[in-house]
Amino acid sequence: MTQLLAISNLSVKFPTRFGVFDALEGVSLDVNAGEIHGLVGESGAGKSTVGSAVMGLLQSPGYVASGEIRFTGRNLVGLDSDDYHRLRGDRISMIFQDPQTSLNPLLTIATQMIETIRQHRKVDVHTARQQAINLLKETGLNDVDTRIDDYPHQFSGGMRQRVVIALALCTEPDLIIADEPTTALDVSVQKQILDLIRTLCTARNIGIILITHDIGVINEITDRVTVLRAGRVVESGTTEAVLGSPAEPYTKALMAAVPRLDKRLERFKNIIDDEPTELDDTHWKVEGASAGYATDWLLTNNERAHTSDALPSVSERPAILSIQDLEVTFGASGLGWFNRSHGVKALSGVSLQVMPGEVLGIVGESGSGKSTLAKAIVGLVNPSAGRMTFRDSELPPGRQRTRAHPSRREIQMVFQDPYSSLNNRKTVEHIISEPIQFYGLTDNESQTRKLVASVLELVGMPQRAMVKYPHQFSGGQRQRVAVARALVARPEFLICDEPTSALDVSIQAQILNLLKDLQQTFGLSILFISHNLAVIRQMADRVVVLQNGQLVETAGTESFFNSPQESYSQLLLRETPSLTF
Amino acid sequence: MLAFVLRRLAQSIFVMLAVSLIAFSLFRFVGDPIAQMVGQETSIEDQENIRERLGLNDPLTTQYVRFVSNLSQAEFGYSYRTRQPVSEMILSRLPATLELGAISLVISLIVGIPAGIYTALKRGFLSNALLVATLVGISIPTFVIGIFLIYLFGVSLGWLPTFGRGQTVALGWWQTNFLTVSGWKALILPGVTLGVYQLTLTMRLVRAEMQEVLKTDYIKFATARGINYRSLYLNHAFRNTLVPVVTIIGLQLGGIIAFSIVTESVFQWPGMGLLFLESIRYVDIPVMSVYLVLIALMFVVINLVVDLLYFAIDPRVRLRGSHD
Question: Smallest Cα–Cα separation from B308: which of B213, B243, B248?
Fold first, then answer.
């Protein structure tokens, strides 16, 4: 094996207003031809910075402070920018995360490929086109001869990623940096793309740096792996050795945080602590506020708490939410004379029930209607047919549900992206007290304040967080605030729509632990939506599988994961990359 | 695509009907048309005769239908002030305004777009100087710029004429500036005055859009593939800024033509704006209402052209359109 790339002692610095930030410190790694080298770490670990540094595309004002990047023996650090640009695409290429955004929407596939080929090789348009067709065939695109003249938006996500790979291969580079190449894809497509990357790597003897946050992907495809944390190498070696018997506690903790597909754990253990921040000021307290106060407040005035002990087991109680033949159609507006369209059925004929105190997992790929279901329940979209019954009374659909309707308080929601679900211009206190005031749940200001501080403590945040703004927190902390906001409304029913998919695995483990604790303490009924089967296995009591807006399978979690009945469920389970150590 | 155009044309008809209703009410309800037409010595009977002859005693709906049908046949009636047919007055003024608008649009595009791209890509003295200079251009009212230019180039240096169109050449009914030296000279000052504001807007819009596009993954990917910078910036990046830029430029062009009143009066440019100003002064309602309808028509046409340009620029719009 010939060594392609050798990075030694690489340090990258970003000068900022608040001093110099060390994005990478003394990172060393090497890549051989025909080998996939995985770079794994959580956000902020510096994985992508390694890629940018090799490409010579560090975002200004970042710069390489010291170290060497040797590519086939030649040091790339300090290379003239014109020489560097000739190298890009020709010898080193890149695959980006999101195929939706990494292709120019205004140019056809053919135009983009032919331009790239002719940029680096002196060939005529016809030859270049033929090469492009061959490459697309090699990456497994169907009907290449006709589809090559299509525009990017005419392809599905998986097909688009194949086009991206073909584009990266255009001039037969020796090294490809794949930055999260499958993160934006559904599991069934992810598997195919990973297989394709492996095949191309072996067949063309290309070295690949595969950057990912997903240890499952690392396990599935890489030969060697380097674990990064906060810009430093934690551990590196062959994938088998590092993942099979990790030497460093961080690697162990990272692996423990990955939800397991093969068995259900009560809690995630060995959680990686957040880096300490100035926020962890535990002395700052609102008088009388404590997690216990919040627990008591949430449990009193709550009929569920009084009665639940007396009730028989889950199966004999009436469902808290039951949905019959729900159908949601988008875009079926018959308003204009010319644009009468039939619309798209996002959900059709979905029936399900959620028992009190139960966590129902909803699983499916993108476009399966998971989020539409959540929106229909909270009244954000108007179903075109079907009935929803909540606590023995009918839920008015969509716009007919008044703001004063009791279900508005009783059903609360936690959204996927904590960066956009919290208003950045309001303090955390304002954000959490808003539902309290809206539903008139406390008697006076000081009680509200005490409650906000207590709930924050309950979700594992320092009380002081209440005087801060959301942008001062990390993603995980924000999601805790979002959970607190949902909780203070004293909901009966909580909808979590992909609550952890925007978070790192270690943070995901923390949030999942938190949700489990809260669910057990308050006996909440939860509709838990996720595309990640392993997360569903950890959280749900029962599982519902959706595909293209239709319900495929409903089963208890254990029986579902041990013996899925429908072929689609089996496929999903088979294609999910997992850790089997 | 055809369906789309037909749909837009149908919508345009509604817009035009609404505007014509406003123009009609202007005509009919702002003062008594007869009182403005005749002198004080005209007898009441004669006034009634005229009223009957002009059909002003007919029901309002009849009058409105007649108004619209006249408009649609380009019969615009007679001016109260000059007794000439309104259509003749407009036609004699229209070329001046359109040519002025075209020149200022060209100035704003050939300076604004390259300057926008340049300031988006490069930082440094020239970039900052351009941004500051055009900020001045957008903050000073048009008439001040006009008077300043007149003072500098017309009075102090004496290079350029300060008013009027200079010599024009007739191409049929169209009087054009473009074929004589004095016509070109006369165009420069008002053209620049009117173009400065537009230029600033174009430049800043192109700059902001370029900066957005340069952050996208497809530009990063194209850079990583080693596409040369010229093609990267002009073909890949600039093309993607066009949709918003075309929208705003289209609306601005309408604004330039419709509201060049200030510039035209500073330079005594014999265009529609000046005509409109004179008509207001003499309460020349037929001219005003026709002007209103024509400006509305122009906006409708420009918007339709902008929408068609979307089809040319963006394949996503094009393909969605073909599914209709």
Answer: B243
